[in-house]
């Protein structure tokens, strides 16, 4: 059985800074139980406890999961598509080779991402961390799977997005980023490749390896991110405040969604030319995008971070709010009850053969990331989807031209 990850990567010092630059690719206790909960539709109760027992005693390298093909790859890790054997839900399994974590900055990056994902795990527009396990030579980071691919793939497939669709995507990213900033987390690598879509078109922010934890009154000094999305204060190597750099990167994402190309680019791979254009804020918007979107982009891609729009100002911009009545508003931060809804006793009972219900309930409410808490969350996800299908409800309302 793979042991639980204790949050420590051998050789990784405690640090909130990040590696110098990400490689840019070409251009995711009071127990509160709802005793009156509606029985979960679609959970295979007969034999489920035995199935759970058998999956954990499987001699495979990752008990409880079947491991499929590689769907992503980095310098020291591969991301594989997996299946949680009990629920049948697809998951993304990041397999980190500890023998290749020789660079201290890489070790810090792994430890930071796991720490931040645990901190942000309750927001629906941030990829959900399910379980972290450790073997002798590997760390397994198991997350929800967003089957719709990256926003980059989506934009490339459609050439560019209609403004109503881009607006819908931007709103969701705004909700997720606002939650990050409220928790003191700056992403620092917002780009099309780090935004995933689920099958029902829900946005998921991924890859927090370059993120930073804000310290009140202290500026950030590590210059990182992907060059085409990096803010002027980063490429000019200044000390900088965290939130404005995410706003700039989000402005680049918005530009790319509605035009089909990046606002800042250079001939060939001339990084100096690219940096000079970013520092000068030189870009050209096509005539055929709306005047309101041009105005929003000007506010987000302002070179002076003190004059750049904040996330709240972006959310309040007429283009983002739309013309529907009532117009869209940035929702308030989720309450504790919304973050941790009542537990489903039927699902808890399904898992009780291997762990008692009280212990499991407390583990879930403490926000732990074990195989059993992952099993609960995946069964709850499946039950929710089954209920919606049973009642003919879509996971998300259809996109409207607002």
TrEMBL record:
<feature type="domain" description="Protein kinase">
    <location>
        <begin position="65"/>
        <end position="320"/>
    </location>
</feature>
<dbReference type="GO" id="GO:0004674">
    <property type="term" value="F:protein serine/threonine kinase activity"/>
</dbReference>
<protein>
    <recommendedName>
        <fullName>Protein kinase domain-containing protein</fullName>
    </recommendedName>
</protein>
<dbReference type="GO" id="GO:0035556">
    <property type="term" value="P:intracellular signal transduction"/>
</dbReference>
<dbReference type="Pfam" id="PF00069">
    <property type="entry name" value="Pkinase"/>
</dbReference>
<dbReference type="InterPro" id="IPR011009">
    <property type="entry name" value="Kinase-like_dom_sf"/>
</dbReference>
<dbReference type="InterPro" id="IPR000719">
    <property type="entry name" value="Prot_kinase_dom"/>
</dbReference>
<keyword id="KW-0547">Nucleotide-binding</keyword>
<keyword id="KW-0067">ATP-binding</keyword>
<dbReference type="GO" id="GO:0005737">
    <property type="term" value="C:cytoplasm"/>
</dbReference>
<dbReference type="GO" id="GO:0005524">
    <property type="term" value="F:ATP binding"/>
</dbReference>
<comment type="function">
    <text>CIPK serine-threonine protein kinases interact with CBL proteins. Binding of a CBL protein to the regulatory NAF domain of CIPK protein lead to the activation of the kinase in a calcium-dependent manner.</text>
</comment>
<feature type="region of interest" description="Disordered">
    <location>
        <begin position="1"/>
        <end position="46"/>
    </location>
</feature>
<dbReference type="InterPro" id="IPR008271">
    <property type="entry name" value="Ser/Thr_kinase_AS"/>
</dbReference>
